Amino acid sequence: MALLDLLGQVMEIKGVNSAAVFSDDGLMIEGLSNDQTDLGFVGGLIASSLASSQVLAGLLGEGELNQTMIEYENGPVLITPLKAATASDHNFVTVVTLDSAQTLGRVRFQLRKLLPELAKVVNV
User: pLDDT tens track of the chain, all 124 residues?
Assistant: First the structure.
């Protein structure tokens, strides 16, 4: 299945406003949005936020980062690393914006089913 099709499935989850995949250096690979949000613009911020979260997890001894959630006034943002098949593969991250914190549980549950497929597609 193509990356755009998988992101379309993410967008079908009730409460999702946008979904995108970025390389770990902040380059947007693909993205979809319900509004006119310029997802490519936030790539560098996403990359630095993820790097900061990974450093914090290491300092706190919390193990490997699985997901970061940042809650804003207009709704949460989920940042999830997509596991690379091998250590030499390029790393990718998915970013999903939500309409409210009330949809967070449902979105995380349904997104968990799609993340392995997203990882497989981008790590080809």
Answer: 799 999 999 999 999 999 999 987 888 999 999 877 777 777 777 777 777 877 888 888 877 788 888 888 888 989 888 876 655 566 889 999 999 999 999 999 999 999 999 999 998 7
Secondary structure of 53-86 in HEC code, one letter for each residue: HHHHHHHHCCCCCCCEEEEECCEEEEEEEECCCC
The percent of the chain in helix, strand and coil, each rounded to the nearest 5, is 45, 25, 30
pTM score: 0.86
Domains and CATH numbers, the chain: 3-122 (3.30.450.30)
Q: Is 10 exposed, middle or buried (0-12, 13-18, 19+ CB in 10 A)?
A: buried
How many CB atoms are closer than 10 A to CB 95?
A: 23
Whether the CB-CB separation of 49 and 68 falls below 8 Å is answered with yes
Task: Supply 88's token pair.
Answer: 């030499």
